[in-house]
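Intended use. Records like the one below are meant for learning the mapping from a protein sequence to its folded structure. Do not use them to infer anything beyond what is encoded.
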Amino acid sequence: MGILRRWERVVEDCESALVAKIFRTDPVQMLDALRRECDDHAIVCSQSRVLVPNDYTVELAEQVHDVLAARGGEVGRQLTDVLARHAADRGYEWAGPLTVHVTTAEVPNGRYRISSAALAHIPAVAAGPRGA
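Structure written out for the chain above:
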């Protein structure tokens, strides 16, 4: 039984590596997926108002994340800029301040996964005078 399980793992690893080589992650594909996530979750509130999620998470395979992390926060800023331009071109409104988080995760075939959420904008509460 142990030999069969090991053989099965070897075959699965080879298959995953082959798929990853054939379908390499293209940065343009990831940007398109980010835009599509925005478009797919757009909510039409009125003729002149379309609301979209403002909190995006881009999950990358560990090795890809490590390479991009060497560039500092540049990648997150670039993704945020691309998404902001896309929304401006479409006339979208954000549910709150736009954020794009780039994290590491177990993703299929060494690619990426993108998710989004609409987080309400909660303004900071001004502190009142002390002793009042």
